[in-house]
Specification:
The chain has helices at residues 3-17, 21-43, 46-63, 73-108, 115-130, 134-144, 150-157, 161-186. With 188 residues, the chain is mainly alpha-helical. Helix 2 (21-43) runs antiparallel to helix 3, helix 3 packs across helix 4 (73-108) and helix 7 (150-157) crosses helix 8.
């Protein structure tokens, strides 16, 4: 950082910490597009990236009074965007994985059920899997039966990891829909 950039950063930081809305507007205008492009590189989704950048600016404003004197504003914003993306990714990934795993376990396993009922559930699940679109079914079976990671499935099928994630999410959504009727009647 050059001396003039360092000086400008210091002035902006002091003014921001005092709660000057004009300074905040200047910072927003100066960095928004750069942060958006940076975040789209992570999300591959402009709407999600816009949300993450907006959250980062909100956090900057909320934390402004506690910023260290040597804070470099643009570096701080880029770090906020990256951390917000990571938090969002972990939350969504854990929610999807946990929900899907619990759902399938509830369909397939129960200690108090008879072998006959468990066999029936497995038969329903197998029937539902056969109704999946071909590529979606292939990805799902590699994940479930072969216990492959998304990266391994992507390499094996020569598709992107994002496509693998999309297929798995779609498979789980379709399986949930297909098995929902069974679960409703099972708990009545």
């Amino acid at each position: 950082m050059s001396t003039s950039q360092h000086s400008l950063n210091g002035e902006l930081l002091i003014s921001l910490k005092k709660g000057d809305e004009n300074t905040f507007g200047y910072i927003f205008d100066a960095f928004y597009e750069k942060l958006l492009a940076f975040t789209i590189g992570y999300t591959k989704d402009k709407a999600v990236a816009e949300d993450i950048v907006q959250q980062s600016f909100i956090k900057l404003w909320e934390k402004r009074k506690n910023l260290a004197e040597d804070t470099v504003i643009d570096a701080y914003l880029f770090t906020l965007c990256r951390n917000n993306f990571i938090d969002r990714y972990r939350k969504e990934r854990n929610t999807i994985l946990l929900t899907d795993e619990l759902y399938l376990e509830s369909v397939l396993e129960s200690e108090s059920e008879s072998d006959e009922k468990t066999a029936y559930k497995k038969q329903l699940l197998h029937k539902a899997i056969t109704k999946l679109p071909e590529k979606c079914k292939e990805v799902f079976l590699l994940k479930q039966n072969e216990n492959l990671r998304n990266k391994e499935i992507a390499a094996y099928l020569k598709i992107s990891e994002k496509t693998v994630e999309d297929h798995i999410s779609r498979a789980m959504r379709l399986l949930r829909r297909e098995l929902l009727v069974f679960l409703i009647f099972m708990f009545l």
